[in-house]
Design goal:
CATH architecture of the largest domain: 3-Layer(aba) Sandwich
Strand order of the largest sheet: 7-6-5-8-9
Low-confidence stretches: none
Mean pLDDT: 94
Order of helices and strands: HEHEHEHEHEHEHEHEHEHEEE
CATH superfamily of the largest domain: Aspartate/ornithine carbamoyltransferase
Largest sheet: 5 strands, parallel
CATH topology of the largest domain: Rossmann fold
Number of helices: 10
Bound molecules: N-carbamoyl-L-aspartate
CATH class of the largest domain: Alpha Beta
Structural class: alpha/beta
């Protein structure tokens, strides 16, 4: 069964094909208007969302399919204490594919261990957000025509910003990519991601100065400081306005640099920037619907080709503990906690945290 839990579940060729499908959908939407007729998408959203959930819903509707689900865990049996493993084994009786957003890191991995229908990770805690990455990549492709040789600056909350983690992994796989990570020192990229970037030999620098970095950038990817992931409000308040992009800061940017943001914006891009032709964040939203159409269509086709019988519950419980309190393993029964990477580091299977 093919899922999309993290962006690297798809090869670069498969991503190229998804992008080509999305572009075909944009050109000829009528050809796809019944492509998923009779199919159902379940949107299981345990965490707030506007864009992602509505764009999954719109995507399935435009493919001729139907949508069911919940947008607030408090309104589902989760509030009675139901675990992810049980919820997905219930929902798979009613739907053909699941898009799940969860506040616990690794929850969609647990779902995929129990479900016999495809699982799409629609954002898990501060970990990954692969469908936002597909959205970002379609936008980059439509404006730059390529991925290789680009310099991409990520600015803001790079520690908890899950969209950053997935996009960096995706873009790093193309030739000649350079990363500039711009953040306060408290919000630098997580250790596991830095190790992965170093292991693959991707070029990167880390800085606290946006204006110095600006002239080198082909893409500026702004992010919100992720208030909901902070342990202390005081720490959030200290860091929330670390970077505010305005027209003055853009004075030395390339004329064809593109400005991306997964949205919602809080304070990190001044409204005056919206009128600049380089600001693409609202166009990104529309691209998100088209690429999700391509994704749902593709995963459902693959699932038809390789039908799976219902999975046996996993009974073996891992004796190891992940130290990340935001990991799904901290609150729910999991198995196979640890994976070992090529350099010998042991990682949590669910949230990637390095296990000492
Ligand atoms: C992002 C997310 O949920 O991670 N939003 C989105 O899905 N477009 C970014 C954010 O919440 O800051």
């Amino acid at each position: 069964m093919r899922n999309l839990l993290e962006i690297t579940d798809f090869t670069t060729q498969e991503i190229d094909t998804l992008i080509a499908t999305a572009i075909d959908i944009i050109k000829e939407p009528k050809r796809y208007s019944e492509a998923c007729k009779g199919k159902k998408l379940a949107t299981l959203f345990y965490e707030p969302s506007t864009r992602t959930r509505l764009s999954f819903t719109a995507a399935m509707m435009e493919l001729g399919g139907n949508v069911l689900g919940f947008s607030d865990a408090a309104a589902s049996s989760v509030s009675k204490g139901e675990v992810v493993a049980d919820t997905v084994r219930v929902v798979e009786n009613f739907a053909d594919i699941i898009a799940m957003r969860h506040n616990k890191e690794g929850a969609p991995w647990v779902a995929s261990q129990f479900a016999s229908i495809p699982i799409i990770n629609a954002g898990d805690g501060g970990h990954c957000h692969p469908t936002q990455t597909l959205t970002d990549m379609l936008t980059i492709y439509r404006h730059k025509g390529r991925f290789s040789g680009l310099t991409i600056g990520f600015c803001g909350d790079l520690l908890y910003g899950r969209t950053v983690h997935s996009l960096a992994k995706a873009m790093g796989r193309y030739e000649g990519i350079k990363f500039v990570f711009i953040s306060p020192k408290e919000l630098k990229i997580p250790d596991y991601l830095r190790k992965e970037i170093e292991k693959h030999g991707y070029q990167y620098i880390e800085t606290t100065n946006l204006e110095d970095a600006m002239p080198s950038l082909d893409i500026l990817y702004m992010t919100r400081v992720q208030k909901e992931r902070f342990d202390s409000e005081a720490e959030y308040n200290k860091l929330k306005d670390s970077f505010i992009l305005d027209m003055h800061k853009l004075h030395n940017a390339q004329k064809d640099m593109i400005i991306l943001h997964p949205l919602p914006r809080v304070n990190e891009i001044a409204y005056e920037v919206d009128a600049d032709p380089r600001a693409l964040y609202f166009e990104q939203v529309l691209n998100g619907k088209f690429i999700r159409m391509a994704l749902i269509y593709t995963l459902l086709r693959w699932a038809e080709e390789h039908k799976e019988s219902p999975k046996q519950p996993i009974v073996e419980v891992s004796p190891l503990k992940c130290k990340n309190a935001r990991c799904i393993s901290a609150t729910e029964m999991v198995s196979s906690l640890c994976t070992t990477s090529e350099n010998g580091d042991r990682h949590c299977f669910y949230c990637d945290t390095i296990l000492k």
